[in-house]
Each structure stands twice: as C-alpha cells, then as structure tokens.
Specification:
The chain is mainly α. It has two domains: 58 residues, Multidrug-efflux Transporter Regulator, Chain: A, Domain 2, CATH 1.10.1660; 50 residues. The protein is built from five helices and three strands, in the order βααββααα. The protein has a three-stranded antiparallel beta sheet with strand order 1-3-2. The longest helix is centred in the last third of the chain and has 47 residues. The radius of gyration is 22 Å and the shape is elongated.
Length: 125
Amino acid sequence: MSEDRLSFKEMCARFDVTPRTLRYYEYIELLDPEKEGRTRWYGPREVARLTLILRGRRFGFSLEEIRQWLLIYDERGSRAQMEAMIEMSDRQLAALEAQRAELDRAIADLQALRDEVAASLDKGA
C-alpha cells in the first residue's frame, strides 16, 4: 500500500463503516476512488470527503444535502462551500433545537406519568 492511499478494507476499518456503506457512497457519487482493476484506492481527497460525509450524517444532514455541499466545493470553491455550510448549519441547528424541545417535553410527560403510576402503586400497597 502507498503511504497516501488506503485500500477498500483499510478505509472501512479506519472509518468504522461497512463495505456496503462505502460502496453505497461510491454508487451515489459521494466518493470516487481510484480503480486498478477491481481494487479501489482512496487518496487524501476521498479520506477528507468521507470524514465530512460522516460528520454531516452525525449532525443530521441528509446524504443529498451533503452531496450538494460537496459539489459546491468542486464547482465554486471553498469560500462558497463555507458560506453554504453556515446556511445549512443554521437550518440544521434550528431543527435540532426543535427536536430537543420535543424530547424535553416527552421526557417530562413520561416522568410525570411514571410518577403518577408509582404514587398510585404506593397508595394501593
């Protein structure tokens, strides 16, 4: 293996992704490894892209949003990509805050119900 390239297996191990996931990201053109026959090699560009893809997924971005964001870099450069990231992040932060508020309400409601049931058991015992 070259110092600056990873094999398919090494890429899966380094990022803790399944072969199916890696193949899917290639299929939807998020990744474009070098191919030598049936062997795939991932250089620094693909390593960086997979890092960004996985980070984006962790933050709740869809694969299509990530694909569009990566295309901005390819078509218009890093400044446009950074501006798009700010816009996407603002939208996602608002969505995550709404989800957190909903989770907080659900937790409070479940806690209240649990406490009511526990209290009724204590009264009946």
